[in-house]
Amino acid sequence: MNDLELAKHIATTAGKLLLELQACGLFAEKALGKAGDRVANAFIMEALKQQRPDDAVLSEEEKDNEERLAAKRVWIVDPLDGTREYGERRGDWAVHVALAIDGKPEIGAVALPGLGLTLASEPQMLPEVAPKLRMLVSRTRPAKEAVAVAEALGAELVPMGSAGAKAMAVLRGEADIYLHTGGQYEWDNCAPAAVALAAGLHASRADGSPLAYNNANPYLPDLLICQKHLAPKVLEALAVYSKEAAA
Fold first, then answer.
1. Cα–Cα distances in Å, from 16 out to 40, 80, 98, 135?
2. For residues 176 and 134, is the Cβ–Cβ distance under 8 A?
3. Which superfamily is assigned to 3-120 in CATH?
4. What tens digit of pLDDT does each residue of 135-153 get?
5. What value does the mean pLDDT take over residues 189-196?
6. HEC states along the chain?
7. Engineering a disulfide at 78: which of 96, 178, 191, 211 sits with its beta carbon 3.0 to 4.6 angstroms away?
8. CB-based contacts of 211, cutoff 8 Å, min separation 6
9. Is 55 among the annotated ligand-binding positions?
10. Nearest CA to 11 among 73, 75, 70, 56?
């Protein structure tokens, strides 16, 4: 199977394993999250080893191997994005499987097992933007920058769990803007960015610069995903807020 088919298959299968683990009734909330991380990671790592043995892998749940920095093809995975939500048996968690080629998010699959969906990096019909904009924020710690931008744009705040769930909510028409400034790593946003870009959405850093992957330091703290015509408005509002906050 090709890279896209493989990413979708691995993400979907990992999601099914996580659902079975979630339903077994053997784990309390925090223990369930830890078990989910381990089980999904073990499956993904073994699947990639078998199917793409010559590619490098960067996973949230694995010790980083600096040899990946010399690789052209690097799989960037988050076996369980939204561990807290998974442990709480909510639906807003995800599985991320992405392939960065020369640092670009070329292939991605985001499984939303709680919804029975896997979205991948292929052309998709974009939803219409709502008359009143809706901006996604963390359900537990919304960033002050996002709150300020939402106020400037007259947007409604939509709290949600994992990064993958929020990014895919834009693609699914549940919200219009996902602006994150509270800190992420490459595995948090590589697959969502690949899916968003392939669908024709805007996906960038919070200053509008391109997203780049397979860096020595995988910390990638900010992200903007929205429809392309909204991006200039969001970036301008964020720049105004940042300038005022620094004054």
1. 10, 12, 18, 29
2. yes
3. Fructose-1,6-Bisphosphatase, subunit A, domain 1 (3.30.540.10)
4. 999 877 778 898 999 999 9
5. 98
6. CCHHHHHHHHHHHHHHHHHHHHHCCCCCHHHHHHHHHHHHHHHHHHHHHHHCCCCEEEECCCCCCHHHHHCCEEEEEEEEECHHHHHCCCCCCEEEEEEEECCEEEEEEEEEHHHCEEEECCCCCCCCCCCCCEEEEECCCCCHHHHHHHHHHCCEEEEECCHHHHHHHHHCCCCCEEEECCCCEHHHHHHHHHHHHHHCCEEECCCCCCCCCCCCCCECCCEEEECHHHHHHHHHHHHHHHHHHHC
7. 96
8. 105, 189, 190, 193, 203, 204, 205, 220, 223
9. no
10. 75
Q: Distance between CA 196 and CA 231 in Å, rounded?
A: 13
User: How long is the chain?
Assistant: 247
What's the mean pLDDT in 185-212?
A: 97
Gyration radius of the chain over CA positions: 17
Cα separations (Å) of 113 from 96, 118, 128? 11, 8, 25
Indicate the domain borders of the chain.
3-120, 134-246
Class at the top of the CATH hierarchy for domain 134-246:
alpha beta
- Token pair, residue 97, equals 């499987």
Angstrom distance (rounded) from CA 77 to CA 59:
5
Q: Is 81 annotated as a binding residue?
A: yes
48 is in an annotated binding site: no
- Rounded Cα distance, 182 and 114, in Å: 25
**Is 78 marked within a binding site?**
yes
- Backbone phi and psi for residue 198, each to the nearest 5 degrees, phi listed first: -65, -30
